Amino acid sequence: MHFRGFTLLSVFTIFLVTLFSSLPQAYGAGNSVDRSFKPSSPFSQALETLQKQIGFTFKSIGLLRRAMTHASFSEENNKALSILGSHVIETSVSLRSLEKDIDLSSKELNKLILEISNVESSCAVDGARLGLHKVIRVSPKTDPSSPTIVCLAFRAVLGAIAVDSGNTDEAVKIFWSIHNDKVGRAVSV
């Protein structure tokens, strides 16, 4: 009798381990997401709208959720995605600038990168153009329309796109479409 109980417990344990070990893979691959399901929360609806605005549908909506989550709201936040997004911007500005003028000095290139990465005059303008201040989740004590927070969210969206697509090409394309395809400061709407 003791042996039979042990066998049933073992079989049940193996079943649970098998079941739960496959869940993260299915979720990460986007297999568990029913695209016909309509989002119910205002945040989920805002993420759907944002995807339409930027012209990119995430395979893993969790990446966009994280991109729209500030550190004041959760430990699972957009900091790392924002760093990646910042590098996407810097690399794309460098590439586009050097394609136009290979003799561009390093000083001029750095100036262009700083101008387009500037929180107040460019990055936050791009993020505000998308209405990210209305989407990002922050703590009640944090101002979601702060240029720094909007800029971090914008960069994080680009980082999330790069991770979701597995390369930076799509993020670069979306960056330039939002930034009006020009090297330099964003022009506010």
TrEMBL record:
GO terms for cellular component: nucleus. The gene is LOC111291036. It comes from Durio zibethinus. GO terms for molecular function: double-stranded RNA binding; ribonuclease III activity. Residues 47-166 form the RNase III domain. Residues 1-28 form the signal peptide. This is Protein NUCLEAR FUSION DEFECTIVE 2-like. PANTHER family: RIBONUCLEASE 3, RIBONUCLEASE III. Keywords: RNA-binding, Signal. One of its GO terms (biological process) is regulation of gene expression. The keyword RNA-binding applies.
